[in-house]
Specification:
The complex is a heterodimer. By secondary structure, chain A is of the alpha+beta class. Chain A folds into 4 domains: 51 residues; 99 residues, PAS domain (Beta-Lactamase, 2-Layer Sandwich); 82 residues, Signal transduction histidine kinase, dimerisation/phosphotransfer (DHp) domain (Helix Hairpins, Orthogonal Bundle); 167 residues, 2-Layer Sandwich (Heat Shock Protein 90). Helices cover 51% and strands 19% of the residues of chain A. Chain A is built from 13 helices and 13 strands. The radius of gyration of chain A is 41 Å and the shape is rod-shaped. Helix content of chain B is 37%, strand content 17%. Chain B has 5 helices and 5 strands. A 5-stranded parallel β-sheet of chain B has the order 2-1-3-4-5, sandwiched between helices. By secondary structure, chain B is an alpha/beta fold. Classes of the chains: A alpha+beta, B alpha/beta. The interface between A and B is medium-sized, with 28 and 26 residues.
Chain lengths: 451, 151
């Protein structure tokens, strides 16, 4: 309030000195006028005097009017400043990303939320074409939408993907509109406000995957568990009604063997279903484990099969040496991470086929942006046509080999629970198989380049 | 009706125990049957399209009928159905599903891809046996197949 009063006083003072300056200039001008030598009559003097008084009053009234206008302008200026501040901080502090660009598609401003979305500061992108916020793949389509905005198109919950500095794409729902000059045609700027739904999208996808898995789970109970039951019951009836009364010892042995296999399969299925359901429920406390020790322990657990198939297993240290890294340490659920390597080693040994020099190699590749673990074999390989299937629950490519089709589904679950992903590479049947995976939330490297 | 003719059934079944059950059930009937047993969807397609190991029509005769499980390694039963029903010749071979699955989605999908019948493997051995008996009576005794199914 005091400030405001002072402002008004100050401007009143300025007004007075402006009046004085005007007076000075008027006197200077008057001095240069030719002097009137005729002596005016009293009547003329009276009239002129009257005229001057009226003029003076008129001028004072005009002055008053000007002063009022000036005060009004000051008030408008204050209000405008307030409203600007209000809008500015509203945009700046908003949780949702906001961006403004001009009719030539140059970025004028973006708020903090947009900086986060983009992974770049406003200063880096201001003045640049708005297309830089999109990936090259999307630019043609999105820029067309942006152009149409200046011919009056508004966006309502339009889904566009924004390119983050780190190369990732964020899915954002946009609302936007262009603003125009009073003529309603000449564009001034366009303002867009978004809602980052990347996380929701990801959750939605995970949910969909989980649902699919759940229905496969239900399917498994109706099919995979029922199937050995059919076997057990039928062969028991064969024993009772045919093979035992006939004392057909060869058939009896065969019947028992089918029953045994089916019972084993059921028990294995139940164990693995249980293991699978525990991956997320029951994550053990995270501990640090040197990668090498973990791989050695996993190898020891599958030693039986490895020696049975006379497989040579190697843990590759090359990459570690090459990059001067001292140790790669995993930090996570020890039991589960062990299961990952155990399953992959077991798998590799199981699918060796007729390979005369079976070899399994395991290690970590540090040459890329993030460490990639691998387990590679020179076994039977996987036909590219079937590679997409193998991580699904209860998928088996080979009907002969024992197994429930849950091993790799379990491996994938564990890896995903540790923030990683897994994929398979194989040039086809007979060309060996390489499983590669990352463990984003579980890898620590010490020494070497990253030290 | 088929008189004294050897009928080939293509049995697509990954579980060796179930294949044995089908084999034993069929053995009890008079009809002369030859069972060609394959253990996955890929092998079923190779057999039907006479590829690789199944190239010789002498040893891999065209089946009169296909008994198909749905959950199969490599290529699943539904995909096998879809592919054989796209073929002008193979479409003439009736394909029957024999599966443990009762899931409505499987039943609907099988018929949508041209299965002529859907049989659920019963847990009760007696029911299984009467099911196979009914199958033999209907499909192998009464049913008339086109001549091409025997080539």
């Amino acid at each position: 309030m005091a400030d405001k009063q002072q402002g008004r006083d100050k401007s009143a003072g300025a007004w007075a000195s402006f009046g004085q300056a005007l007076r000075r200039r008027a006197e200077e001008k008057a001095a240069h006028l030719p002097e009137n030598r005729d002596t005016p009559s009293p009547e003329e003097i009276r009239r002129t005097f009257h005229e001057l008084r009226v003029r003076q009053i008129e001028l004072e009234m005009q002055n008053e009017e000007l002063r009022r206008t000036q005060a009004e302008l000051a008030a408008v200026r204050t209000a405008l400043r307030k409203s600007n501040l209000y809008l500015d901080s509203m945009i700046a502090c908003a949780n949702t990303p906001v961006i403004v660009w001009d009719p030539r598609f140059k970025i004028i401003r973006l708020n903090r939320a947009f900086e986060t979305l983009l992974g770049r500061k406003c200063g880096e992108v201001a003045g640049k074409s708005v297309e830089i916020i999109f990936s090259q793949e999307h630019q043609p389509e999105y820029m067309e939408r942006i152009r149409r905005m200046f011919s009056g198109e508004r966006w309502e919950a339009l889904e566009l993907k924004i390119l983050h500095q780190d190369g990732s794409l964020r899915t954002v729902l946009w609302n936007s509109a262009a603003i125009f000059e009073e003529d309603g045609k000449t564009p001034l700027a366009a303002i867009a406000q978004g809602l980052d739904i990347t996380l929701y999208k990801r959750k939605e996808m995970q949910l969909r995957e989980r649902n699919e898995e759940l229905s496969r789970f239900a399917y498994a109970v109706s099919h995979d568990l029922k199937s050995p039951l059919v076997t057990i019951k039928t062969f028991i009836s064969y024993l009772e009604e045919q093979d035992i009364p006939r004392q057909d010892s060869a058939a009896i042995a065969k019947d028992f063997s089918f029953i045994n296999t089916a019972a084993d399969k059921m028990s294995r299925l139940l164990d693995e279903l249980l293991a699978l359901s525990r991956v997320e429920q029951n994550i053990n406390a995270h501990v640090e484990i040197p990668l090498r020790a973990l791989m050695e322990e996993a190898l020891a657990l599958v030693a039986g099969r490895i020696s049975e198939c006379s497989v040579k297993a190697l843990i590759i240290d090359e990459m570690v040496t090459l990059f001067g890294v001292e140790t790669v340490t995993l930090s996570g659920d020890r039991q589960r991470l062990l299961e990952v390597f155990q399953n992959l080693f077991d798998n590799a040994a199981k699918f060796m086929g007729e390979q005369p020099d079976p070899l399994i190699e395991a290690g970590v590749d540090l040459s890329g942006a993030e460490p990639v673990f691998f387990v590679r074999d020179n076994g039977i390989g996987i036909d590219p046509r079937h590679q997409a299937k193998i991580f699904g629950l209860f998928e088996k490519l080979d009907s002969v080999t024992e197994g429930t089709g849950m091993g790799l589904a379990l491996v994938r679950r564990i890896i995903e629970a540790h923030g990683g992903r897994i994929w398979v590479e194989s040039e086809g049947p007979g060309r060996g198989t390489t499983f590669r995976f990352t463990l984003a939330n579980a890898t620590k490297i010490s020494g070497g380049l990253n030290a | 009706m088929l008189e004294n003719e050897l009928v080939t059934i293509l049995l697509v079944e990954d579980d060796p125990a179930h294949a044995e059950i089908v084999r034993r059930s069929l053995k009890n009937f008079r009809v002369a049957i030859r069972i060609a047993h394959v253990k996955d969807g890929q092998a079923a397609l190779d057999y039907l399209f006479r590829r690789d190991a199944y190239a010789n029509p002498e040893t891999s005769p065209r089946p009169a009928i296909i008994l198909l499980d749905l959950r199969l390694p490599k290529v699943d039963g539904l995909e096998v159905l879809r592919l054989i029903k796209e073929d002008a010749e193979l479409i003439k071979i009736p394909a029957l599903v024999l599966s443990t699955s009762k899931a409505e989605s499987d039943v609907a999908a099988a018929y949508a891809r041209g299965a002529v019948s859907y049989l659920v493997k019963p847990v009760d051995p007696r029911v299984f046996s009467s099911l196979m008996e009914a199958f033999c009576l209907y499909w192998l005794t009464w049913n008339k197949f086109p001549a091409s199914n025997r080539i």
